[in-house]
Amino acid sequence: MISATSLASILKTLQSGDLKSIKPLVKLMQIEVLESLGEKNYLLKMEGKELRAFSKQPLQKGALYYAKLTQPKDAKPTLSHLLKLPSLLLTLKSPQNAPLAYDVETLKKVLKSETSLESFKTGLLHKLASSQTKEQFHALSNLLLSLHQNVLSFPVHIFGHFAFFQIKKRYNKKTKRSFLDFYAFFAHLGALSGVVDERSVRINVAYEEVAELLRKNAHSLPLELHVSIAEKIEPLFESNNRQILDIST
User: Fold this and answer.
1) pLDDT above 70 (res 149)
2) Residue 146 to residue 117: CA distance in whole angstroms
3) Domain boundaries along the sequence of the chain
4) Residue 249 has pLDDT above 50, yes or no
5) N or C end of the chain: which has fewer CB within 10 A?
6) What's the pLDDT at 44?
7) Between 134-148 and 116-129, two packed helices, what is the crossing angle to 10 degrees?
8) Secondary structure element (H or E) that encloses residue 91, with its range
9) Superfamily the domain 25-84 falls into
């Protein structure tokens, strides 16, 4: 049977020194979509400034994305490799919710624990009962909703930056094999998703640079590694504040 310990090994790999340099290599930009200007052109906010850019991918007004931004000579800036930031990530990333984030070593201990699901749930319920702000109440409620869908969602601090991690265990009755689905969002890697079994880990990434660096560090994993480039990488659970009854005020 597969254990979440395998994911702790993946986290350790993602902490490797070589991966720290990936953010400037990929040159990811965080953008906010202010409005659509028609014909696949958008008004965006980036680093406190407004600009107009072209995107083949339809963008949602008000949403935040990570993207590559290129500006050829005598042409409009063009967005590519867009990754929409999950709403739950944005909720957990707010300064009011900073105390909810795990450090990597604590998260490893949680993942390795045989009672991780129950202890995680108990911890969330305790924090929810003592939450001091509306933002914290919503964040904890969403983490519990995620857990209700059998998805463990973890806010994490890594390399001094905020990251987001989700796992879901499933069992195939036909093959009698266990699997762990996972999703992660890192400032230096973008979004990742994949599946872990007792023999291998399959990871989908958005950028070739990330794929190359993961393959380079494959020797540090106890499992066989398969890396693929994917255009769309979705969270295992997305929050919906309309499902939450606000009793925090």
Assistant:
1) yes
2) 12
3) 5-24+87-243, 25-84
4) no
5) C
6) 94
7) 150
8) helix 87-93
9) Nucleic acid-binding proteins (2.40.50.140)
Q: Which of 169, 205, 201, 191 is nearest to 235 (CA)?
A: 191
CB atoms within 10 A of CB 90: 13
d(CA 106, CA 104): 6
Q: Given the structure tokens 């400034």, which residue do they identify?
A: 49
pLDDT above 80 for 171 = yes
Predicted local confidence at residue 115, as pLDDT: 61
How far from each other are the two terminal CA atoms of the chain, in whole angstroms?
A: 45
Q: In which band, very low, low, confident or very high, does the pLDDT at 248 lie, cut at 50, 70 and 90?
A: very low
**Token pair for 46:** 């980036």
CA pair distance 74, 22, nearest whole angstrom: 29
Between 113 and 244, the higher pLDDT residue: 113
Lowest-confidence pick of 15-19, 46-50, 230-234: 15-19
**Residue type, position 118, single letter:** E
CB 150 within 8 A of CB 168: yes
Q: Which of 209, 199, 169, 206 is nearest to 184 (CA)?
A: 206
| Residues in Cβ contact with 105 at an 8 Å cutoff, skipping those fewer than 6 apart | none
Residue 203 has pLDDT above 80, yes or no: yes
Residues 55 and 15: their CA atoms lie apart, in Å, by 32
Angle between helix 5-14 and helix 104-112 axes, rounded to 10 deg:
160
